[in-house]
From TrEMBL:
UniProt xrefs under SUPFAM superfamilies: Enolase C-terminal domain-like, Enolase N-terminal domain-like
Protein name, per record: Dipeptide epimerase
Gene3D superfamilies on file: Enolase-like C-terminal domain, Enolase-like, N-terminal domain
Source taxonomy: Bacteria, Bacillati, Actinomycetota, Actinomycetes, Micromonosporales
Catalytic residues identified in the record: K162 (proton acceptor), K267 (proton acceptor)
Co-factor requirement: Mg(2+)
Keywords: Isomerase, Magnesium, Metal-binding
Species: Micromonospora sp. CCTCC AA 2012012
């Protein structure tokens, strides 16, 4: 069966709570959904989230890439030849990882639908339940403590605290959250490149000395500063997780070579899709590097693909798959659901998505 058509859908949906990090503030999920249709009329879906400050991807840019470059390369090609089609997507254009990820996931979704199996089974797994952390958006200590108590009451046992907006107050923020939730809840930090190497070492050592029991620290310094990342990793006891420093395989090879981080956060929209993500997970495992699968602010489509990857391949700690949980409502029908801190994968072909409805783009907050 061949790929008969490629459609794109611009989606925007509001969050129930503003999402704030050291890099950005947003009140919406803005994303491009790619739909691949075979000549039997089956559809496979993928998405390219707009995240200017991390990937540099825009909806307009991703749509142009898909329509003008990738779609012509796939037109009339065999949809069942999945490895070859994914390789063609990677070769079609330099960069544009989010656009590639959208098409890559859509190819996987379509292949699973054609076989009549959930995406997780196509990837080699069977689990339909995947645990996730939940993010505490950056804010003041009192606000963070209140949010932490609320998330604990909702069943979340792993909290990802966004820091890096104000190095001078970050230790007190962590202290407030730990006091609010007690010793049973795991806390991890994400500085989103917000600290200098010296600030990172000072704050992380302060957390350790205060006995605040933090699980790991994600991307403490600028993505390009691998020397600084290695310098921090060598001087603190807590595991350091590389996120923005690792987009693709070459980035991870360099992190491993320099011993710059203990762990890596694999995100489909950074690396170009499931095809590359599996290579990153295998490479990390082969070198004793810990793994997390994360996400941008995405809908059930992107989270469903990422959760299916985790269900099939596993990670060394609980992954970061809460993005669609932040949606006040979603233009995507079907797909994953949340049960407290668990992502529920549908026992349906592919991602289980039945339709998408385009929404007018809203002003970013």
């Amino acid at each position: 069966m061949t790929i008969a058509a490629v459609r794109t859908h611009r989606l925007s949906a509001p969050l129930h709570t503003p999402f704030v990090t050291a890099l950005r503030r947003t009140t919406t999920v803005d994303t491009l959904v790619v739909e691949l249709i075979d000549d039997d009329g089956r559809s496979g879906f993928g998405e390219a989230p707009q995240v200017w400050q991390v990937t540099g991807a825009s909806i307009a840019g991703a749509e142009a890439c898909v329509r003008e470059v990738i779609a012509p390369a796939l037109a009339g090609r065999d949809a069942d030849d999945l490895v070859a089609r994914c390789a063609e997507v990677q070769r079609a254009v330099a960069g544009n990882e989010s656009a590639k990820a959208a098409v890559d996931v859509a190819l996987h979704d379509l292949a699973a639908r054609r076989l009549g199996v959930p995406l997780v089974r196509l990837l080699g797994g069977t689990a339909l339940r995947v645990p996730t952390d939940v993010t505490l958006a950056a804010g003041e200590a009192v606000e963070l403590a209140a949010a932490a108590r609320q998330r604990r009451s909702e069943g979340f046992g792993v909290l990802k605290l966004k820091v890096g907006t104000d190095a001078g107050g970050d230790l007190e923020r962590v202290r407030a959250v730990r006091a609010a939730v007690g010793p049973q809840v795991r806390i991890r930090l994400d500085a989103n490149q917000g600290w200098t190497p010296r600030e990172a070492v000072r704050i992380i050592r302060g957390i350790t000395d205060a006995g605040l029991d933090v699980e790991l620290v994600e991307q403490p310094v600028a993505r390009w500063d691998l020397d600084g990342l290695a310098w921090v990793s060598d001087r603190v006891e807590l595991p350091i997780l590389a996120d923005e420093s690792v987009f693709g395989v070459r980035d991870l090879v360099e992190v491993i070579r320099r011993r710059a981080a203990d762990m890596v956060n694999v995100k489909l929209a950074k690396c170009g899709g499931l095809h590359t993500a599996r290579t990153l997970l295998d490479l990390a495992a082969a070198h004793g590097v810990g793994t997390v699968v994360g996400s941008m602010m995405e809908s059930q489509i992107g989270i469903g693909a990422a959760a299916s990857l985790v269900a099939a391949y596993g990670t060394t700690v609980v992954s970061d798959l809460d993005a669609a949980w932040w949606l006040a409502w979603s233009p995507v029908r079907g797909g994953i659901r949340y049960d407290g801190a668990t992502v529920l994968l549908p026992d349906a072909p592919g991602l289980g998505v039945t339709s998408v409805s385009e929404a007018k783009m809203q002003t970013r907050g």
